[in-house]
C-alpha cells in the first residue's frame, strides 16, 4: 500500500519497483493487486521469473530489463502478456515464450541468444508483431559454433522463421 500510494489495492493498475528476490520473496503479491496491468521491475535482481509468483495472469505489460535473468521459466503464468521487455539479461533459450498467446511486442535486445533456431519458438506467438533482437550473437552469425558468414543476414533469417512479424529492431520486417 505504501509503494502504490493507495489504501485500496483494487485501484492499482500500474506499479513500478525495484526488488531483490535473493533476499525477499515476492510470494504471490499479485493476489493483492487484481487489477494490475503493467509492472515495471527494471534494474531489479530476479533469480527467476518464478519469483513473481503465479498470480499475475491479468498482467498485460511487463518490464524486466537489466534484472540478471538467465531463463524465462515461469513466464507462462503471465498468460495475458501483450508486451514483454526483457532487454539486457542473460537469456539464451526462448521455448517458454510459446505459452504467451497474446504477445505482440517482445524486446530481447542485448541477451545471449546464440542460435537463430531459438526464433522458431516465437513463430508460435501468432500475434507477435514487434521484435527486438539487436545486440545478440544471432545478429552476427547463425549459431555459436559457426564462423561469421559474409552473406549471413539475420533479418532475412528471422523473417523466414517468424513470417507474421511486422517490425524487427524497429524497422519494418519486410526490409531485409
From TrEMBL:
Q: Which Pfam families match?
A: LRR_1 (PF00560), LRR_4 (PF12799)
- Keywords, alphabetical: Leucine-rich repeat, Repeat
The protein's superkingdom reads Eukaryota
**Record has Repeat as a keyword:** yes
From the UniProt annotation, give the residues forming the signal peptide: none
By its UniProt entry, which InterPro entries does this protein fall under?
A: Leu-rich_rpt, Leu-rich_rpt_4, LRR_dom_sf, LRRC56
Name by which UniProt lists this protein: LRC56 protein
* Gene name of the record: Lrrc56
